[in-house]
Amino acid sequence: MTAPGAFERGTDGPRVILVGVDGSPTSLRAAAYAAGLARRQHSRLVAVYVTGATTPMAGWVPAAEVAAREASAAVDAELRQLTERADELGIEAEYRTVHGDPVAELTRIADALPADAVLVGASEQAGHRVVGSVAVRLVRVGRWPVTVVP
């Protein structure tokens, strides 16, 4: 129970909305939804692109690692450019690129901000039904509301 008049996280609408983006269609829809929510709620939007570890083919095909890095850099540049345009919509936005496991990095950043809401796109990969998608793993962390955008 909080003291009367004390601020309680999440009671006045979200102050900080974190959205995980990776360039996929569902993550771009999540970013658009998060931007609209941030605009309507007068919230700060933090978009995070988590670059993954090396590709499984890197050991077998040396060019695969180079291609993966180039593709990641292209996605990063496109997402950075989209975030910079948020100012035109009246949204206070920040873009971050980090390297590592998406769930670990999104959790770390959401806790550090602290974020009031986390949004991600639904996974389009079949293997995530077995291992668990980023969205499902974030829900299991259970520290903030997680919205999964199809």
From TrEMBL:
<dbReference type="Pfam" id="PF00582">
    <property type="entry name" value="Usp"/>
</dbReference>
<comment type="similarity">
    <text>Belongs to the universal stress protein A family.</text>
</comment>
<dbReference type="InterPro" id="IPR006016">
    <property type="entry name" value="UspA"/>
</dbReference>
<dbReference type="InterPro" id="IPR014729">
    <property type="entry name" value="Rossmann-like_a/b/a_fold"/>
</dbReference>
<feature type="domain" description="UspA">
    <location>
        <begin position="15"/>
        <end position="150"/>
    </location>
</feature>
<dbReference type="InterPro" id="IPR006015">
    <property type="entry name" value="Universal_stress_UspA"/>
</dbReference>
<protein>
    <submittedName>
        <fullName>Nucleotide-binding universal stress UspA family protein</fullName>
    </submittedName>
</protein>
